[in-house]
Design a protein that fits this description.
Layout (H helix, E strand, L loop, with lengths): L1 H13 L7 H16 L30 E3 L5 E4 L8 H10 L1 H18 L13 H28 L1 H4 L1 E7 L4 E4 L4 E10 L3 E6 L2 E2 L9 E6 L2 E6 L8 E9 L2 E12 L13 E2 L4 E2 L1 E5 L5 E4 L4 E10 L8 E6 L2 E2 L6 E5 L3 E6 L8 E9 L2 E12 L13 E6 L5 E7 L11 E8 L5 E3 L9 E5 L6 E10 L2 E2 L9 E2 L3 H9 L26 E8 L3 E7 L10 E8 L6 E2 L10 E5 L6 E10 L2 E5 L6 E2 L13 E7 L2 E6 L9 E8 L6 E2 L9 E4 L7 E10 L2 E2 L9 E2 L14 E5 L4 E4 L13 E10 L2 E2 L3 E2 L9 E4 L7 E10 L2 E2 L9 E2 L12 E6 L5 E7 L11 E8 L4 E3 L9 E5 L6 E9 L4 E4 L3 E5 L10 E4 L5 E6 L9 E5 L2 E2 L6 E6 L2 E6 L8 E7 L6 E6 L1 H15 L5 E9 ...
Parallel strand pairs: 4-11, 15-22, 97-104
Antiparallel strand pairs: 1-2, 3-5, 5-9, 6-7, 6-10, 8-9, 10-11, 12-13, 14-16, 16-20, 17-18, 17-21, 19-20, 21-22, 23-24, 24-27, 25-26, 25-28, 28-29, 28-30, 31-32, 32-35, 33-34, 33-36, 36-37, 36-38, 39-40, 40-43, 41-42, 41-44, 44-45, 44-46, 47-48, 48-52, 49-50, 49-51, 49-53, 53-54, 53-55, 56-57, ...
Helix pairs in contact: 1-2, 2-4, 4-5
Length: 1456
């Protein structure tokens, strides 16, 4: 039986594939053992549940399973789970789910035992009756069936068919439903063990427990279902069911499409009803962003205001932004913000990649609303003229372990020459070093980058090159990781089901040392002039090691194979070959290698010729430009032929300019594009070029010229069909004009009707064959008591619109009310940010009496209705002011008669109070001929637009009062004969626009002012910028001048003196500058006969002018005197003269300088300084103070004193003339210098500072200089301080101080020093209180205590020598003077050891001041360093001296 067990184990090992789990293997083995345990013994296998061990007979070494853990006796003791498997918890959950599989295995064992029982059959010969023969025949048939069942069972018991992966026998079907309905998806899944299933919506796991109100799932007998309740538009998605067991995972997909009801089709529930909030949300996007233009590097924000009605607290819609249909997510370049009522998208640092169609989508529980507009991004200015702009849209493809393909798109502008190629740079993430990937530029917009490091992340950028230089680099690509694609796919896939992770198991048979096989499916994927790219699949036989590759090439016609990558084998199954000979043909093959060796080569490729496989695109077909809006044109072109992956650039040029500019900086697909940003009323031509990876095509032919102007389209349906009047056999209906006229005047309306009986509605029938031009119509020949519905269609030059929304069913009955019916035809003109004009038409049904007035009501936002005016108005218009900018308003009108006030009109609105861009007001103009007119301009004119003028908002009927002239976008209403009859409000409206209109009210006062201006224009006066004036010039010359403000070249001037015309001559010189309008007349001098009136008379066509100047009496005499003085001055300046007369200057150091400046001085000019009429000669001491530099003469007095007072004088003279200047520095002059010095000193003073001493506190300030003549005052609490013994003030050097001896608290307060500065005084203030006082007083106490201590400290004050020399045997007596309070303690030391009084040393202290020491019969041992030490509580002091004992020579010799 052990042999049969080995066979079973070998069969089990053969089932272990690369993706087989250990649990699968353990399940198979346990099922097998349980099946055989019922009818076999001695197998050596015993199964014990839970904590019991499993014993297995020993296995041969070759047959040991890689994942079995064995002990020393080679007994299997358990399993080893590889580290790369899923988490332990996930595996446990899967194992628990398979418990029933083990129990079901018991059933198979029973059936197997049933069929494995042996039966003994004994054959006997006996006679059989017919009935017995038939019975045996039936038994044989039953036995055959039993044998067949046994074979089927044995086949099922084969381990290969015992388990199998999930399989969808019935897949879920796609569903299309209406909003508000429920939908259920069904499927049937087979598999063994029983698979677990999970449902996903757009690959997002559906959790029915978290959303029981939305989803419900069921699973019975392998039939699984998902129910989606109350479907809405957001449920449109692709649903997936995933089934998983130990054999693998399978998925099935089912799309669900939710359609939306039309408004009239909803009967059971309102469209968009939200069960969660119990309301139907209505979303409106207002304040929309339009077509936007930006430049690279700028920041752009797009935003819309979103109105969601009704308002639900804390409800936030789903706000999504798209670019070209691709959902945007927040990133470094894209920021999104939702403020509660406004959605904003901010594009940081714009790049051309950001160009495209941007869409805002607002999703609510009830539906969605969208808005789209195009964003154009222009290139930034190039740094070098002529170079191309940067490429764009850099992407990475086919990334592998050491290889990636980089693609990009060519820029729209090549520069001043064609692009020669591109350079690709790479940068490893985490560093800032960019490395160039190609040495020579590549022309293709695609390049394979090799040599990457496996596992590293990279970014790439591209630059374009032409003969003028290299462009700026493009925006960097997204980060790409150099790794195996299968590893990347596994990382991206993540968990395949919610209850477990993706578990990858690899068969670990001993395959180390296996040489890999040959790669397969080798092919040339790209071939250009620059490189060839090969791709292949890894070999099947490769072991567990990583496989690398060698690439070989062979030129066609030779048998020599050359290895391309001889150095390092490549890791990726991709390789790019460079440096191939263009035009040559090559074959390629690849070998696999690992540590065991190099495998066999793959099959070689077919011959590949080195050259471009991708052709340049052909030129696009004919280009057609079609009018679109006032600033855009639709361009359509024929696609380029025989090319792939094409995109297009469109360029535009104003006719006649020959300057082409790109319309798009990011290439577009398709053959249609809307070019925005064009100038209205200009004619443009367009051309297109195609681009693909190979490069640019030739340009298409130019389109025909297209005028940029809004196109014409069919108008929108008229809104709001209402009932205005009804009688027995007719009804009057009204409606509003269409919101969009389609760019042309609405020529009229067509009406249809149908009858309504209960819920049955008849077909539509025409009412009028000829279009009606008003917004009301009387429908006749109707039947009484029958219900009718009406719809209206508008018609313009382009055609007939769709029918309006059918009106409600109106019953044809006669009205019996007495009050008037509602006003109709409400519309708004002159919409501004703070006002609007409301107009309406009178009610069709007036009631029992005529209408006598109207009331207007207004409602702001969701507020309450309120009346606009207190009293009714008889007009059918009203200007409403005081609006809030950006707020929305609704309006209605009530008509009244004698009986009362009627019902409200149809509500108009909401209308947002805003001034539309391009809105102009009516301008009143008076031309040169005095003609008064009103001018209105409109820049938003469309085809067929007209200016409609009205007075008091009624059409002009009397054409004799006004003449209308219209040219282009400007209309002029000219008053033929302005008078009081013309008073009123004039308005002008432009048809086929977005309500552009304006008005002007002509009042009596305004008319009077206009008539005055008209008279001035008819009889003009030449205006003067400056009336006639007089000016004295050099030499006393007199200049008369005036300047004109407005004149023509025909202007003539007449010069008059005392009513006599004067002309150019010896006495007078005239000039009229036509450029500046300055009129001049010159006279060399004034004489007595020149007293009188000077006049300039001017004539300029019919305009005249006059300006005069009167020179008589004292004015003339004074001017004549000044003229003579100026002439004398001119004579003086012919020789050396003083430009600046003698003056003084005080420096910051208080030095006084006398200065003057001399002009027109030569080398021989003599300079003489004098003081008190005494010349300062060269040898004098004052001569050293004289200086000269650059024509400036100076005299340095220095610090001023009384001896420097006097009269100083400087004389200059030479052969041309002489001049002198004098400065009096006596009395007033001297005091002026002192005052200037005082000002410098006072301003140089520093802020008051505090200093403490042992005697008290000192306040002081420093100045640059001090003189006794300076007045200084000290103040305490604003009172002058008088000098005393305790408080003293004085000066030390440049320091001004105030000393306070023995300060007390009375000395606290504000102190100031007042320094005279020549006029008033400069004060420096110090508040000696608080912390300042505390610190100063504490320091004073400290210093005072220190001084007392120093005075009373014990010390030796004298009497001791420094050195004492004495003969041996003599006695030494020394006395020292001692001071100290209290009386100090006295001691003597020798060599720092204290001496005591004895027979040898006698120590005394007498009279408390004399300390003596006596040494009897000194010996050499008494030599040393002695000290008298005194000490008291204030300190210790010592008087040191040295004693030196010597021996006389004779005694010394005797001793020797």
């Amino acid at each position: 039986m052990s042999g049969s067990l080995q066979v079973q184990q070998q069969e089990q090992r053969s089932l272990e594939t690369h993706y087989e789990s250990s649990y699968h293997r353990s399940t198979l083995s346990s099922v097998s053992r349980q099946s055989y345990a019922a009818h076999t013994t001695g197998v050596g296998v015993k199964t014990v549940r839970k904590k019991q061990q499993k014993k297995i007979t020993s296995l041969p070494k070759k047959e040991k399973r890689p994942r079995l853990a064995v002990d020393k006796e080679e007994e299997v003791i358990g399993y080893v789970v590889p580290v790369f498997r899923s988490s332990h918890l996930a595996t446990e959950e899967l194992m628990e789910s398979q418990e029933e599989v083990k129990e079901e295995g018991v059933g198979y064992v029973v059936m197997r035992n049933l069929f494995t029982r042996e039966a003994d059959y004994k054959f006997k010969v006996e006679k059989k009756t017919h009935s017995k023969s038939m019975r045996e025949s039936a038994d044989r048939l039953a036995l055959r069936e039993k044998m067949h069942e046994k074979q089927v069972f044995q086949k099922k018991m084969n381990p290969d068919s015992l388990t199998h992966p999930p399989e969808f026998t019935v897949k879920p079907r796609g569903q299309t439903v209406w909003e508000g309905m429920d939908v259920t998806l069904h499927c049937t899944v087979a598999g063994w063990p029983k698979p677990r299933v999970a449902w996903y919506k757009n690959n997002v796991l559906i959790d029915p427990k978290a959303h029981p109100e939305k989803y419900a799932t069921e699973s019975h007998y392998n039939i699984h279902s998902l129910e989606i309740k109350n479907c809405d538009f957001s449920d449109t998605a692709e649903y997936r069911i995933s089934a998983l067991n130990v054999k693998g995972e399978r998925s099935a997909f089912s799309p669900v499409i939710v359609k939306r009801y039309k408004d009239e089709g909803v009967t059971e529930r309102p469209h968009g009803y939200s069960a969660e909030y119990g309301v139907t949300f209505k979303t409106s996007i207002i304040d929309k962003f339009g077509v936007s233009f930006g430049r690279e590097g700028e920041t752009m924000s797009l935003g819309c205001t979103v109105v969601i009605y009704p308002t639900v607290k804390r409800y936030q819609p789903e706000v999504l932004w798209y670019r070209n249909g691709v959902l945007l997510t927040p990133s470094k370049w894209v920021h999104m913000h939702w403020s509660g009522d406004r959605a904003t998208l901010t594009l940081v640092h714009l790049n051309k990649e950001d160009e495209g169609l941007y869409t805002l989508r607002i999703n609510t529980k009830s539906g969605f609303d969208t808005h789209s507009a195009y964003v154009f991004v222009r290139d930034t200015d190039v740094e070098v003229e002529g170079v191309p702009v940067a490429p764009l849209d850099v992407r990475c493809h086919d990334a592998n372990k050491d290889y990636v393909v980089v693609t990009w798109k060519q820029p729209a502008i090549e520069g001043s020459s064609t692009i020669l190629g591109y350079f690709i740079d790479r940068c490893e993430v985490g560093t800032h070093h960019w490395a160039q990937c190609n040495d020579t530029p590549v022309k293709y917009a695609r390049f394979p980058v090799t040599g990457l490091n496996e596992g590293r992340s990279y970014i790439f950028r591209v630059s374009a090159l032409n003969k003028f230089g290299v462009s700026r680099p493009s925006r960097v690509s997204d980060t790409v990781v150099a790794m195996d694609p299968s590893d990347r796919a596994r990382l991206r896939a993540g968990p395949s089901a919610p209850w477990t992770g993706m578990i990858k198991f690899t068969e670990e048979d001993p395959t180390v040392g296996v040489v890999p096989g040959a790669p397969t499916e080798l092919a040339v994927t790209e071939a250009t002039k620059s490189y060839v790219v090969l791709s292949w699949k890894p070999p099947v036989q490769r072991g567990h090691e990583g496989v690398m590759y060698y690439v070989e090439k062979c030129m066609v016609g030779t048998d020599t194979w050359q290895r391309v990558n001889t150095g390092i084998p490549v890791k990726s199954p991709r390789f790019a070959l460079f440096d191939l000979s263009e035009g040559k043909s090559y074959s390629f093959r690849v070998r696999s290698c690992n540590s065991a060796g190099v495998g066999e080569p793959s099959e070689e490729t077919e011959a590949t010729t080195v050259g471009d496989r991708l052709d340049l695109p052909s030129a696009p077909g004919s280009v057609v430009a079609i009018r679109n809006t006032a600033t855009s044109v639709v361009v359509i072109w024929g696609a380029s032929k025989e090319a792939k992956d094409l995109r297009y650039y469109i360029e535009a040029s104003v006719v006649g300019s020959n300057v082409w500019a790109p319309c798009n900086n990011k290439p577009v697909k398709g053959n249609r594009f809307v070019c925005h940003g064009l100038n209205t009323d200009d004619k443009y031509v367009f051309k297109v070029k195609a681009v693909n990876a190979a490069g640019y095509s030739n340009y298409s032919s130019d389109s025909e010229a297209c005028l940029v102007k809004a196109s014409i389209e069919v108008p929108s349906p008229p809104p709001a069909v209402t009932l205005l009047e009804r009688v027995r056999d007719y009804m009057v209906v009204g409606w509003k004009p269409p919101v969009k006229t389609g760019g042309a005047d609405v020529r009229g309306y067509y009406l249809d009707y149908r009858t309504v009986k209960g819920k049955v509605k008849s077909k539509w029938h025409e009412i009028n064959v000829k279009a009606v031009t008003t917004t009301t119509y009387k429908v006749e020949n109707l039947k009484e008591n029958l219900f009718y519905e009406f719809q209206v269609r508008a018609v313009n030059q382009a055609g007939i619109s769709e029918g309006s929304v059918p009106s409600t069913a109106f019953e044809c009955l006669e009205w019996t009310v007495a009050v008037p019916g509602p006003a109709h035809g409400l519309h708004v003109l002159e919409l501004r940010k703070n006002s609007m004009v409301l107009l309406w038409e009178t009610p069709v049904f007036t009631g029992r009496s005529p209408v006598t007035g109207y009331y207007v009501d207004i409602k702001e936002g969701n507020g309450k209705w309120r009346g606009v005016q207190e009293r009714s108005t008889k007009n059918t218009f009203m200007k409403i002011s005081g609006l809030k900018e950006g707020a929305s308003y609704q309006l209605c009108v009530y008509a009244k008669n004698v009986v009362g006030v009627g019902g409200p009109s149809k509500v108009l609105g909401p209308i947002v109070a805003q001034t539309r861009p391009g809105t102009n007001e009516i301008v009143v103009d008076v031309d040169d001929n005095g003609v008064i007119s009103m001018i209105f301009e409109c820049s938003q004119m469309a085809a067929g637009s007209q200016f409609i003028w009205s007075k008091n908002y009624k059409a002009l009927t009397d054409t004799s009062r006004l003449t209308i002239e219209t040219v282009g976008g400007k209309s002029r209403a000219i008053f033929n004969d302005p008078s009081l009859e013309d008073l009123g409000t004039y308005s002008c409206m432009v048809t086929n626009t977005d309500g552009f209109s304006a008005s002007y009210t002509l009042t009596e006062e305004g008319l009077k002012r206009l008539l005055e201006i008209s008279h001035e224009h008819q009889f003009p006066i030449i205006p003067f910028t400056s009336e006639m004036a007089i000016e004295l010039q050099e030499k006393g010359r007199v200049r008369f001048w005036a300047q004109l403000a407005k004149f023509t070249s025909k202007c003539q001037v007449e010069y008059v003196f005392n009513d006599n015309i004067i002309s150019q001559g010896k006495k007078y010189t005239m000039n009229f500058d036509q450029k500046t309008g300055i009129i001049e007349m010159f006279m060399d001098s004034l004489e007595v006969s020149d007293e009188g009136t000077f006049t300039f008379n001017l004539v300029d066509g019919k305009a005249t002018g006059r300006t005069s100047l009167v020179l008589i009496g004292e004015e003339f005499a004074e001017l004549q005197k000044k003229s003579e003085f100026e002439r004398a001055e001119w004579v003086r300046k012919q020789g050396p003269h003083f430009v600046e007369y003698l003056s003084f200057e005080v420096t910051a150091e208080c030095d006084v300088y006398l200065k003057c400046k001399v002009g027109n001085m030569k080398a021989d000019t003599e300079i003489i300084w004098c003081k008190d009429d005494i010349e300062i000669e060269d040898g004098d001491e004052d001569a050293k103070k004289i200086g000269i530099a650059d024509g400036v003469l100076s005299f340095n007095i220095g610090k001023l004193s009384r001896k420097d007072a006097g009269v100083y004088e400087v004389n200059v003279r030479d052969g041309r003339g002489k001049d002198r200047t004098q400065l009096n520095l006596t009395e007033a002059g001297y005091q002026a210098v002192l005052n200037q010095m005082f000002r410098v000193i006072a301003n140089s003073s520093t802020e008051l500072k505090v200093e403490s001493t042992e005697h008290g506190i000192i306040l002081y300030t420093n100045v640059v200089y001090y003189t006794e003549e300076l007045r200084v005052s000290w103040l305490h609490k604003d009172s002058k301080i008088s000098h005393s013994d305790r408080v003293q003030c004085g000066v030390t050097g440049e320091q001004l101080w105030l000393k306070i001896k023995e300060p007390t608290d009375k000395d606290k307060g504000k102190y100031a020093i007042d320094i005279f500065d020549g006029s008033a005084g400069v004060k420096r203030v110090l508040d000696l209180t608080g912390k300042v006082w505390d610190e100063a007083y504490a320091e004073f106490q400290k210093l005072k205590a220190a001084a007392i201590a120093e005075r009373n400290r014990a010390r030796v004050v004298g009497g001791l020598p420094d050195v004492v020399t004495i003969q041996e045997g003599k006695s030494l007596h020394l006395t020292g003077n001692v001071w100290g309070d209290p009386l100090p303690q006295v001691s003597w030391t020798k060599n720092e050891k204290e001496l005591l009084s004895d027979d040898h040393y006698t120590l005394k202290f007498e009279h408390n001041k004399f300390a003596s020491i006596t040494i009897a019969a000194v010996t050499s041992a008494d030599s040393g360093k002695y000290a008298l030490v005194v000490k008291n509580k204030y300190g210790t002091s010592a008087g040191e001296f040295t004693v030196s004992v010597y021996i006389p020579e004779d005694e010394a010799e005797h001793k020797e």
